[in-house]
Specification:
mainly alpha; about 45% helix
Length: about 70
């Protein structure tokens, strides 16, 4: 390998698929929910946003539906 590489003449390209990877959204979550995922983030070493995304993705892939019964 060379000791020095000259990248000054290199023309870089941006990733054309970067916009398709993630979509920013704003949601309102309970403080307890955020605290739960932040605690889990400390234990796993992953960012809490990533953990929330993984959980929601798993729910979507498994076609999980929320089952609630409202009190009459």
């Amino acid at each position: 390998m060379r000791n020095h590489y000259d990248f000054s003449k290199m023309k870089g390209k941006r990733n054309p698929y970067i916009k398709m990877l993630k979509q920013p959204v704003t949601i309102r979550l309970d403080k307890e929910t955020i605290a739960y995922f932040r605690d889990m983030a400390v234990k796993t070493g992953l960012p809490y946003q990533h953990l929330i995304n993984l959980y929601l993705r798993d729910c979507a892939e498994q076609h999980r539906e929320l089952q609630m019964r409202w009190a009459a």
